[in-house]
Design goal:
Structural class: alpha/beta
CATH topology of the largest domain: Rossmann fold
Strand content: 25-35%
Distance between the termini: 22 Å
Largest sheet: 5 strands, parallel
Number of strands: 15
Radius of gyration: 19 Å
Number of helices: 6
Length: 236
């Protein structure tokens, strides 16, 4: 595993590196530390990292800007923000951040992040539906949004669309504990894919671009509250 840490505090970088090495040292990780984003980007261009720990509040290039630069280079790199203020974490939706570690970093919370990274491929939550008489298995992490179409629901995923004969309310009930939100009577979206809110629309990360779906005026406040709540649950 190739890991990068970017933080303007040398003592913090050394401490986090020591913790990561202690927790996953048997996997022989390659860990590099950087005090600013420019050096990290130069090294990333040479050889990408699997996971990057970024301080949000850095003087020369803040973590959000750095994350945008990393995301423009790779949709696969896992970004973990380091912050003393969880309210900053909401900006991470724009770059599809994986997690938010609050400072000072707790060993158990860091372990949860590293365990998640190691096990994400084997523990994916899945949705089973019937399409044209056949059972279809969809990874929840691949879903961009659900769209109601008369007596059908279109499931838009990063790998293509599926039209199934269901009621969108069925999916809303089934996925209420998995971070999905009904933005509009005709749309259900995963909070984890939200990049930003623009007036009456929400912009979603579609895997290889962006998708826009409407937000009912009456749902805007509730959606913002759900986003903050979701971020706080993700923040360690």
């Amino acid at each position: 595993m190739r890991i990068a840490i970017c933080d303007d505090e040398e003592q913090f970088r050394a401490g986090l590196r020591a913790l990561i090495t202690k927790l996953i040292g048997d996997l022989d990780p390659e860990i590099n530390s950087f005090h600013d984003g420019h050096d990290l980007l130069a090294e990333f261009d040479r050889k990408p990292y699997d996971i990057v720990f970024l301080d949000i509040e850095m003087p020369e290039m803040d973590g959000i800007t750095l994350a945008r630069n990393l995301r423009s280079r790779s949709s696969e790199v896992l970004i973990v923000f380091l912050t003393g203020h969880v309210e900053y974490a909401i900006e991470g939706y724009e770059v599809n951040a994986l997690r938010y570690l609050t400072k000072p970093v707790k060993v158990e919370k860091l372990r949860e992040v590293l365990n998640y990274v190691n096990s994400q491929n084997s523990t994916q939550r899945q949705l089973v539906v019937r399409e044209d008489g056949n059972e279809l298995v969809v990874n929840l992490s691949d879903i961009v949004y659900f769209e109601a179409q008369n007596q059908y629901v279109r499931i838009c995923t990063v790998n293509g669309d599926h039209l199934v004969r269901y009621n969108i309310s069925d999916f809303e009930d089934q996925l209420k504990d998995d971070g999905f939100f009904r933005t509009h009577r005709g749309y259900l979206v995963p909070l984890a894919r939200i990049k930003k809110l623009v007036k009456t629309d929400v912009i979603l990360d579609s895997g290889n671009g962006e998708s826009s779906v409407p937000v009912s005026r009456g749902n805007t406040k509730t959606l913002k509250e759900a986003l903050y709540s979701f971020v706080e649950r993700q923040a360690f």
